[in-house]
Amino acid sequence: MNTVVQLCYFVAAVLFILGLKGMSSPRTARKGIVWAGIGMVLATVATFFHPDLHHAVNYLLIILAIAVSGGLAWWSGKRVPMTDMPQMVALYNGMGGGAAAAIGAVELFKAVSQIGATSAQQLAAQKDLGLEQVEQFAAGHSHVGSLLGADHAVLGISGALIGAVAFSGSLVAWAKLDGRLHRNQLLPAQQLVNLGVFVATVLFAILSYYTDGSAVIIVFFVLALVFGVFMAIPIGGADMPVVISLFNALTGLAVGFEGYLLGNPAMIIAGTVVGAAGSLLTQLMAKAMNRPLTNVLFSGFGTATADAGSDPEGEMKAIQAEDAAIMMGYANQVVIAPGYGMAVAQAQHKVWELVELLQERDVSVKFAIHPVAGRMPGHMNVLLAEAGVPYDLIYDMEEINAEFDRTDVVVVIGANDVVNPAAKNDPSSPIYGMPILDVAAAHNVIVIKRGKGKGFSGVENHLFFADNCRMLFNDGQKAAGELIQVLKKL
Ligand code: NAP
């Protein structure tokens, strides 16, 4: 049976890798998700037949837990609006880290209970040992590290630490994305407090290796959870994508480590794959923000000084849908720069209808996608794919930036931070240094948004006050609808 189980784990691991490969392109992403899902089901079912699964294991409880949590995930996954997807991703990511930490906790407490087994019979029963072996065993296994073995103990404790940090940190990220926690927040002397908690957590991680009691392990877990919260609290502003991908990478790593502790190859491979993918994404996101990771984690950027930056000069100039549609209808090239507001308005279908009308009039239309537009990596690509926009109309920031000065009209729909020239021109701005879509270089810019609301980072946008910029104040979907009506009559 063990060979069959190991074979299932191997197939599951291959499916995870193929799944991840599929997810690298919007064309194959759906197939990739299905493959990874089949891999997960296979690995879960195979585990029920694992020879190490003790006869004392309560199958009913396990099945009940899988049914309840699986049912909840299915139900919430079906009804979650697209705009709440980033929160959901943060939450599920946190659950992964929490599960890894829970495995670590169970194994550490089990080890402690074996060390502390008061009677020789108890220990003999737990370890399947003969009575005379017990004395020997107890003498050579006086703390967690010696009982579990150095490699298992170190990886188990590290996995528990990383998993707990990813769990509580992801919950803070979820609360920030869901608007339940203020995005730009600092505790007094935050960096110093963080450093103190971090050092204490590592110290208790080391002590957990040498302990023979539960108290140290409990303090270790509490500290790790607190550190996760403190690590995520000061990160706000435009930096959230970096930290979300970082927690994703940490969750993968924690799962991989705990997989080693359990001797479960499917967990090791799945964890490593997620850890590697998450690390690459973290690097990409940090690069997109033009900031080293250490700077994101330790500078409290976009928090204390979020409302800093110089005040813009001039005033916003409004435009009506009729005039905006005429400008677009008679242009040679129009570039659409979507942002989070397009997701809120669910305007992607109307936007694509608008683009098709422009194309019928021989206007060249392109989409400009900033890597951190929206609230999750790839957010805009997902929305545009859902609306059926062909991939060859979609351009990355680096590709499109050189084209703006040859563009007649840029339509910014629900984007703010990712088109804010303060990031380029204003050293006093908290978002200074972040690369942006250089839309101000176009001949005309039309910005569709509901009012004078700021972007995620809470920074005023100088673009809206520029001479070549006109504001079309409306909900994204309604504005696109009005533009369509006018264009149809042109
Ligand atoms: P943004 O800076 O958050 O701005 C969105 C704008 O959309 C707002 O100014 C809002 O203005 C407008 N809006 C909201 N609802 C709308 C509606 N129904 N119709 C039309 N407009 C609407 O968005 P962004 O430019 O896409 O920038 C993304 C930001 O989120 C960056 O700071 C990024 O770092 C951060 N972030 C990104 C990720 C990621 O992975 N992509 C994750 C977390 C955070 P009004 O209120 O005036 O309408």
UniProtKB/TrEMBL annotation:
Keywords: Cell inner membrane, Cell membrane, Membrane, NAD, NADP, Translocase, Transmembrane, Transmembrane helix. InterPro entries: DHS-like_NAD/FAD-binding_dom, NADH_DH_b, PNTB-like. It is a multi-pass membrane protein. One of its GO terms (molecular function) is proton-translocating NAD(P)+ transhydrogenase activity. Residues 6-485 form the NADP transhydrogenase beta-like domain. The chain crosses the membrane at residues 6-23, 32-50, 56-77, 89-109, 153-174, 186-210, 216-235, 267-286. It is found in: Cell inner membrane. Belongs to the PNT beta subunit family. The transhydrogenation between NADH and NADP is coupled to respiration and ATP hydrolysis and functions as a proton pump across the membrane. Heterodimer of an alpha and a beta chain. This is NAD(P) transhydrogenase subunit beta. It comes from Nitrococcus mobilis Nb-231.
